[in-house]
Amino acid sequence: MTVPALEITGLCKNFGALAVTRNIDLTLGVGARHALIGPNGAGKTTLLNQITGLLRPTAGRIALFGQDVTAASPETRVRRGLVRTFQINSLFNGLSVAENLGLADAAVRRRDGRLWGRHAGRSGLSDPIAELLERLDLLPLAAARIDSLAYGQRRLVEIALALALRPKVLLLDEPAAGIASGESARLFEILMKLPADIAVLVIEHDMQLVFRFAETLTVLVDGGVLVEGPVETVRADQRVRDVYLGRRHHD
Amino acid sequence: MRRAASYLPSRYDLALWGGALLAFFLFPKYLSLATTAAIMALFALSLDLALGYGGIATLGHAAFFGVGAYAAALCALHLSAEPLGGLAAAGGAAAVAGLLSGALILRTRGLTLMMLTLAIASMLQEFATVAKGLTGGDDGLSGYKIAPLLGLFRFDLASRTAYLYSLAVLLAAFLLCRVIVNSPFGLTVQGIHQNPVRMRLLGVPVTLRLLTLYTVSAALAGVAGGLTAQVTGMASVDNLAFSLSGNVLIMLVLGGVGRLYGAICGAVVFVIFSDRAAAIDPFNWLFALGGLMILVVRFAPEGLVGLGQTLSGRWRRPG
Amino acid sequence: MTLAIDGISFGMILFLVSAGMTITLGVMRVVNLAHCGFAMLGGYFAFALMHHFGLGVLAALPAAVVATMAVGAVLERTVYRWVYGRSELGQVLMTVGLTFVMVAAVNLGFGSQLHTLPVPGDLAGVVELQGVAISAWRSFLLAISLAIGGGLWLVLERTLFGARLRAAVDNPRMAQCAGIDVRAVFTVTFIAGCGLAAVGGVLGTQMLPLEPTYALKHLILVLVVVAVGGPGSLKGALSAALVIGVVDTFGRYLLPGAGGFVIYLLIVAILMVRPEGLLARPR
Fold first, then answer.
1. How far is C44 from chain B (nearest CA, A)?
2. Which chains lie within 8 Å of chain C at 3 or more CB pairs, if any?
3. Touch between A and C (at least 3 CB pairs under 8 Å)
């Protein structure tokens, strides 16, 4: 039994008297294809913030490939391979696509602090970045500034940025947010083509995407896990239907 | 973002620096002013690194200028009158000041950071006024002689040596800044300026990078201060004044924040105009300067260099 | 004991001048470094009125305040509009430029010597309080400042306008949707802030005498009060102003050389521990 890529046990987060994360357990094996769904306000992004280190949990444990990272800084977690995308694009808007990805590439190679040599905007695309851009069909946009791109294109750059960091565990926060259902086909393709050894967790509302992509599901309601398991099982679960149709469940 | 030039000098580069050299021959009576312009250009360059590229909002950069000035003066008084060594002392002392203060305050942002830089600079100014034994208090330090540069060039009253000396140091600093700005580090700090949270989530140690930038910036400001102490023969509390921090900020915005030539251009324009205008009428000069600042913010937010580039369309950008 | 009173009244003047700035910064998120200039203008307007019409300080006060608010209104419509969306640096530069213009204008009109506005005859004396002699004028200042502070609090917490203002601060877009004219609220707030500064400028000349460089000289202290108190927080500005006023007064008295040093050390200490300020509005 190999070490799971990401293991969360008993995670709790309280803001004063308000419990936004209740005793969550979640495990991602290497190569997992997992989706996290639930109604708005269920605490999905809060959970993500705790996993990535932007928010300190009140209790619980987070382990990356067996190593405890509960108290580790966000930077440390990224360097160990835990990468996320944002629901609202968080890019370097004044820089070009190539420079954005170049930053990630330099960071992953620990070269971002080098005071000599040329940076990504001046030295041309490195091989891994060029290949990544090609895979995502973004190569023609390499020199374009982020703030000149359309929203859908920026969404793709957001994912490209995460991939440029050579993640071992990838957390995608609503990658299809704001993308018209016609355009989401391209996004879906990219998701399906993600390397098999990356463990992927997707937060999504687009159920089409979720059911085609994910192998396992967690349903989050009111900060706690309602159901989890293989896609078909969860899909058929009456409680999940009730939640989405309005009848509340408390466990 | 600004396209930085390649390592080979462009025609534009050669024209500008050649012109600066030419000034030596064309304006022998104004070399003192030219020296001041060169020193302020270096000071503005140092601020551009921290503020223009890294986004570190500082209202107290004169602190490092002053530390450098006092360090060079003390070196000349007690250690050695050799100018280059004094300059090294100035840069080193300012770098230490930058490192210590940066480590303390760079975790904060925005208004808080501005206030902290202001408070630290003010503290240094008060300290310099009070510590008479070390700094000469309100009178400052003076009465030291600087040895001939490289053993050959004496510092004369016409500022001939002073100008070429300052120009050479400015050029060296400019080249250093260009290397830094073009390096992966340079892109990283620009990224930090634009989106510090994302930077952390790229695995970059943000505060450490900012600290490095701040220290380099402080060192260069210190070198500028050291130059002042050496060519004017004096270091005083004025070298730490808030008005100096304010002036260099104005110079930078005037010329164009985030552009190396912007810093130089803004400084030169500011020094020349303030010299001419202030001689005529100190308070009306304030009027003109204030009006100019308002207009620049409204109509030329990219500064004079930016305006020049916009107006002339496809200029080769100097960086 | 007199030192303490001095410190407190200094602090109160600081509060009056800073209150407007913290509200502008907290409400409109505009860094208005010209704020001290409005205090200065208020003082000079009063000076002119007293000189030309022989009025006393208290009689000249309302007119001076109104005049300053008028100037503020005009500037807000024109020059400030330009920088509302801009970066902090742009706002800093624009407002500093404006300050320079104010300084130059005042110098042109009034010359560069110091002026203080004479204390009205009835309040020039001394009041006995538990055996300690306190300047009547200082006590009056204290009372007025507290009254104004209380009035501000009332307006913010108990009136409709105050509620609208707080809504506009918390969430401008939502407030707009709820039918609140955010722009108008901001404008009124800005003008009121200028008026407050003018009050501080007029009443505080004993401690902060009028001179052309007034606008720049005291800017640092005002900025510090705002930053330490927490932008947007009136209570914070009051606490910070009092602390700074008292510490500065005592510092300058007890350690004549290092007076300023103590203040700045305190400021660094406070900001390092509470970077958002003493009582910042929770964001």
1. 17
2. B
3. no
Chain B interface disruption, residue of C21, C268, C283, most B CBs within 10 A: C268
> Over its length of 283 residues, how does chain C's per-residue pLDDT go in tens digits?
677 778 888 888 888 888 888 888 877 778 888 999 999 999 998 888 888 888 777 888 889 999 999 999 999 888 888 887 777 778 888 898 899 899 888 888 888 788 888 777 766 677 766 666 677 777 788 888 888 888 887 887 788 887 877 777 677 777 778 877 777 888 888 898 899 899 988 888 877 888 888 888 788 888 888 888 887 777 888 888 988 888 888 877 777 666 677 778 888 888 888 777 666 544 3
Instruction: Tell whether B182 lies on the interface with A, counting CB pairs under 8 A.
Output: yes
B154 or B76, which is more confident?
Answer: B76
Q: Write the residue in C105, C259, C267 that is nearest to B119 by C-beta.
A: C267
Domains of chain B: which residue ranges?
2-242
Q: Whole-angstrom distance between the N-terminal and C-terminal Cα of chain B?
A: 10
Please check whether residue B213 is in contact with residue B53, taking contact to mean a CB–CB distance below 8 angstroms.
yes
pTM, two decimals, is: 0.87
Min distance B283 CA to chain C CA atoms (Å): 5
Residues of B in contact with A75 (CB under 8 A): 200-201, 203-206
For residue B181, the model assigns a pLDDT of 93
Mean pLDDT estimate for chain C: 82
Residue A95 and residue B198: Cβ atoms within 8 Å? Answer: no
Evaluate whether A143 touches A98 at the Cβ level (below 8 Å). Answer: yes
Contacts of B215 in chain A (CB under 8 A): none
In a domain, C169, yes or no: yes
Q: Which residue has the tokens 């989106």?
A: B195
The total number of structural domains in chain C stands at: 1
The answer to whether C41 and C17 are in contact (CB under 8 A) is no
Instruction: Return the amino acid letter for A187.
Output: L
Cα–Cα distance, A230 to C202 (Å, whole number): 75
Give the best residue of B101, B293, B296 to mutate against chain C (max C CB count within 10 A): B293
Which residue on chain A is closest to B319 by alpha carbon?
Answer: A122
- Rounded Cα gap, residues C256 and C267, in angstroms: 19
Residues of B in contact with C275 (CB under 8 A): 107-108, 112
CB contacts under 8 A, A 94-153 vs B, are 94-96, 99, 102-104, 106-108, 111-122, 145
Q: Is A16 on the interface with B (CB under 8 A)?
A: no
Mutation site, C92, C112, C262, interface B, largest B CB count within 10 A: C92
- Flag whether C144 is in a domain: yes
User: What tens digit of pLDDT does each residue of B14-60 get?
Assistant: 888 888 888 888 888 888 899 999 999 999 999 999 999 999 989 89
The answer to whether the Cα torsion of A123, A128, A129, A134 is positive or negative is: positive
The answer to the question of residue C65 being in a domain is: yes
Alpha-carbon distance of B227 to A172, in angstroms, equals 54
Per the structure, the complete domain to which residue C65 belongs is given by 2-212
Asked if residue C13 belongs to a domain, the reply is yes
B234-235/B141-142 β-pairing:
antiparallel
Point out which residues pair with A13 in neighbouring strands: A21
In degrees and rounded to multiples of 5, residue A36 shows phi and psi of -115, 115
Compute the distance between CA of residue C256 and CA of residue B6 in angstroms, rounded to an integer: 55
Task: Judge whether B108 is closer than 8 Å to chain C, CB to CB.
Answer: yes
pLDDT digits (tens, 9 = 90+) for C102-128: 988 888 888 878 888 877 776 667 776
Q: Which of B191, B197, B212 sits opposite A95 (nearest CB)?
A: B191
